[in-house]
Amino acid sequence: MTLPRSVNHNVGWPRPSQIHAYFESLSRALGILQRRILIERADDDESPFFGMTEARAAEEIRRLRTELECQATLFLTASFEAVFRQDLMFRARKRPRDRVSKSLNRQFGKRNMEEIRFEEILDAWKQEIGGAESIGSLKQLVLLRHWLAHGRYWRQKSGLHRPDPYDAWARGTAALSVVPILAEVDYAPP
């Protein structure tokens, strides 16, 4: 397996637990903003909510919350992908002798890491250890992530009704609970 040359190991990638905490913080901040709007929208002419009716301001907060949920779902899914990729790179570098590592190295050993689709990695895990429900659930989330990441201009076909960071967290952690990750990667909640 060819490891990416462009990886800057001095820059940390955001762990799922960090993204989860980020989402929780911004959700709380939106709640505070919503309460403040009732006071500010009539008094502060520099507020983006100045002059809005209460209903219009509430709609704007709902729009902000929806966008936050889309972003957090996208980021969480990408971060869970990074956990799986970090593990695959670890197995390629360290060459552990367990059955799963040998199989993954046989399957992906000659390929450039950047050319391996995440879905292929998930399929390999499903073939090696089972966990079809958990892995399939994460693959469904990956379809939603593709839709979010590439502009949302086509009909969303993941089968999920809407981006939901709590659902993304549950799906990602469920998949990781059935996969024996060897790389030292923190994905647990803070």
What does this structure look like?
The chain is mainly alpha-helical and 190 residues long. It is 65% helix and 0% strand. It contains six helices and no strands. The chain has helices at 16-43, 54-94, 99-108, 118-129, 132-149, 165-178. Helix 2 packs parallel to helix 6 and helix 4 packs antiparallel against helix 5. It is elongated and about 70 Å long. Mean pLDDT is 86; it is low at 1-10.
Key features?
disordered N terminus, 190 residues, mainly alpha, elongated
Shape: elongated
Q: Low-confidence stretches at least 5 residues in length (pLDDT < 50)?
A: 1-10
Distance between the termini: 33 Å
Number of strands: 0
Task: Let me know the largest β-sheet.
Answer: none
Which percent bin holds the helix content? 55-70%
Radius of gyration over all CA atoms, rounded: 20 Å
Question: What string, H for helix and E for strand, traces the elements in order?
Answer: HHHHHH
Please identify the structural class as seen in this structure: mainly alpha
Number of helices in the DSSP assignment:
6
Strand content: under 5%
> What is the typical, i.e. mean, pLDDT?
86
Report the oligomer.
single chain
Provide a short characterization of the protein structure.
The chain has 190 residues and is mainly α. Helix content is 65%, strand content 0%. It is elongated, with a radius of gyration of 20 Å.
